[in-house]
Amino acid sequence: MRVVIVRNYDDVSRKAASIIAGEITSKPNAVLGLATGSTPLGTYKELVRMHRQEGLDFSRVRTFNLDEYYGLAPDHSQSYHRFMEENLFGRVNIKKGNVHIPDGLTKDVTAFCRQYEEMIRQSGGIDIQLLGIGRDGHLGFNEPGSSLGSRTRLKTLTEETVKDNARFFSKASEVPRLAITMGVGTILDARKLLLIASGGVKAEAVKASIEGPVTSQVTASALQLHPHVICVVDEPASRLLLKKDYYKYVEKIAETVEAEARI
Ligand code: GLP
């Protein structure tokens, strides 16, 4: 696992966007796994900037989102469909047919989830999955106790997650209690994982995920089982990491080796 510690939120966003842009440049029809929440906002803003100013081309890019609230229509102001449209899809040249987000209004959840998994498989699999992290260390909506082998399914949100997300709704009672989410097993199938975290409020979750035991109680700890993970975290989010100095040292060495290779 690569742990890249940067100064602040803007640096997290720039670094994550440059990794995703690199993926698109080397494979123009890349399959991106995308996330919602406040953390990826800066990453999407930077990708939009790269599209507008540097010609980053999304015309062949395909995407699969991690999750969607169950019961919310795509045009609901707090749906993840709406979030993605407003923050990324509506601002770059991606084709509507190449975008996939779980359907929060599906009548047959089991069949829908099976089909979502099938669509990911048929696309050739996700090349890089962007991930935020919940305060309890969840990925997508894989709350504590989710099987580390879980697939896309309906999940009940914890009180903590409902409370955390209440800030986006006018009333806490409006926050959906259920969501359709890719499973931890689905996430681990992606070829690369890119976790981003910012702020002291995420420090405990980051520490538990990167340095804690692998446990279904902190589903992001499953990242430790994946062969190609990059965690980009800012100083406040990395505060509790015991091996912080070592991670920084590793990045310094990598930079030196790259610089020497370029001479
Ligand atoms: C929700 C999303 C997660 C996200 C988390 C943290 O639970 N389903 O994908 O990582 O919120 O969001 P934020 O980045 O706003 O802290």
Give the tally of β-strands: 10
| Number of helices, counting only DSSP H or I runs of 4 residues or more | 8
Ligand identities: 2-amino-2-deoxy-6-O-phosphono-alpha-D-glucopyranose
Identify the strand order in the major beta sheet. 1-10-9-6-2-3-5
| Unreliable stretches | none
Shape from CA axes? globular
CA-atom Rg in angstroms: 18 Å
Largest sheet properties: 7 strands, parallel
Describe the structure.
By secondary structure, this protein is an alpha/beta fold. Helix content is 36%, strand content 16%. The strands form two sheets. It has a seven-stranded parallel sheet with strand order 1-10-9-6-2-3-5. Helix 2 links the parallel strand 2 (31-34) and strand 3 (62-65). The longest helix is centred in the last third of the chain and has 19 residues, at 244-262. It is globular. It starts with a strand and ends with a helix. The model has no long low-confidence stretch (mean pLDDT 96). Bound molecules: 2-amino-2-deoxy-6-O-phosphono-alpha-D-glucopyranose. The site of 2-amino-2-deoxy-6-O-phosphono-alpha-D-glucopyranose has 13 residues, from loops.
